[in-house]
Each structure stands twice: as structure tokens, then as C-alpha cells.
């Protein structure tokens, strides 16, 4: 949730933008209008996408209502924009709700060895890393021997990375000594599965990434061995691919005056390609350059009128 008393000058096409830092599947956006001059929000459009250029992102809605359903639109940037001249954009509060694109923990089934009060196992996959009300956003077991939390992905994945977010209070050390295990066995509550990573410690309110290098498994288990232990998690994210995922190489020829040897330019092209694939429902992909593109000079054969490519 982002709180602001945002106010632009009277201008043409005023806009306000938030950078979510990563690509999210945005489920909904809420906007709270100011009490004074409430009509200024009329005609605003909300855009979600991966481009710093306001107009390149996808329009979600044009309305003055408070809550907008985004249906999982993907993007790093959420923009509120009023088209037209002599417009003023004024916002009291904006909320963006969703989850990181590619997080396979969303929609999984979870269980833990025990539950303290209302610190339920589901809180670790609610797409909320917030720490203001820990009991509604984090999990916690009772004090016990070998506490554990388990996620059922419903399918066997090749897990590339697990991200664990710790609580933000004086009990951050409760994660110390935890193990992340991945596999297909429920024997001993899944604790017998192979270890992906050992968590020595995670700072309060921090999110740590643990590489699992494609370990295969349907279950992801976080477990602390020992007596008189409490396991508490604020969020667990799982990234990877279904077995049989094939790496594809695509050779593209760009008609561009831009310098493709510039890494920033190449990165922007990948973002545009990723956005185009997402519009077609293809989201579980990773794009990268296998090599720096080489320029191709086209010349016309005056005899045949055909183009000839020269490297």
C-alpha cells in the first residue's frame, strides 16, 4: 500500500507512476480520491506494464470508482494518467495488490506442524510481505520439536529458487537454522526430502533468495530441527519450471537505428518481447541474449532489385 497526497500542476496529460521494482501480476488497484476538488480524478486511466513510456503500457480502466480489478495483468509499473489539456491529477492514496509473476507458490496447498493462534500456514502464500499486522500476514507454529511448514505445488517442478521473507519484530531469530527441502515424498511429513538450502539467519523484514538449481519436487518444506523451536514465515515464493521445459533459441533481425551493443537498449528489447508474449498468455519464460547482436547492413542489388544482407 502506498499512501500519498499527490498533486500535479495544471498541464497536458498529467501522470503518476509507481515502480514495483519487479514484474508483478496485479490483481487489483485501489484509489482514494481527495475530499476537495474530487472531480479532478474524472477521466483517469490506469495503466499496467513494463515500460517507462506511459503510453506503451496497457490501459486497464477509465473510471472514478475506488477499486479496479486487474485480473492478473503483468507489469513492473502502475501508472495513473489523465489524457487531455489543462488537467490536474490529484490522488490521496493508491494501493496495488498482486503477486510476483512466476511465483508457483500461489495457488498451492499448505499445512504446518502446528498453529499458534491465527498465524495460519496460508499466510505464507498470501502475496503479502507486509509486516504491520504480523498475525494476519505471517505463520507461526507452537513451540515444539522439529516444527515444519509444507507447500504442495500440485505438480512436480524443477525448482530454481525459493525466496523466504522473515518477520519484522524481535523474534526474527526464529527462522535461524531452518532447512529448505524439496522432493516428492511425504515420509516423515516431507522432512526426508533432499535439502535445497540451509538458513543460518535472515534479518528482520528481509527477503533472502536461495538457489535450488532445478531440484525436482512437488513439495517444498521449511523445517527447523531440534527441541523447543518455533517456525515463523511471512512469505515463501517458489520459482521454477515444469519438467520437460525446453530452452528455445530465437534468431531475430531488428530494423533499428539503436545501438544494440548497448546493454540498456538490449534489455529494453527483451522487456518489449516479454510484454508481447504475456499479451498472448505466455508468461512462464525467461528471456536473455545468448550473444551481443551484430549489425546487418542491407544493400540492394541494382541488377535484380533484391536486398543483400552483409554483416
Features:
311 residues; mainly beta; Jelly Rolls; six-stranded antiparallel beta sheet; 2 helices; 7% helix; 40% strand; flat
Low-confidence stretches: none
Task: Give the tally of structural domains.
Answer: 3
In terms of DSSP E residues, the strand content is 35-45%
Determine the number of helices (DSSP H or I, runs of at least 4 residues): 2
Mean pLDDT: 80
Helix share bin: under 10%
Number of strands: 14
Q: The biggest beta sheet, please? A: 6 strands, antiparallel
What does this structure look like?
The structure is a single chain. The chain has 311 residues and is mainly beta. It folds into 3 domains: 2-100, Jelly Rolls (Sandwich); 109-241, Galactose-binding domain-like (Jelly Rolls, Sandwich); 263-310, no CATH class. The chain is built from 2 helices and 14 strands. It has helices spanning 134-137, 263-279; strands at residues 2-7, 15-32, 45-49, 58-62, 67-81, 90-100, 109-112, 148-165, 178-183, 195-199, 207-223, 235-241, 297-300, 307-310. The protein has a 6-stranded antiparallel sheet, with no helix packed on it. Strands 7, 8, 9, 10, 11 and 12 form a 6-stranded antiparallel sheet that branches. A two-stranded antiparallel ribbon has the order 13-14. A hairpin with a 6-residue loop joins strand 13 (297-300) and strand 14 (307-310). The model has no long low-confidence stretch (mean pLDDT 80).
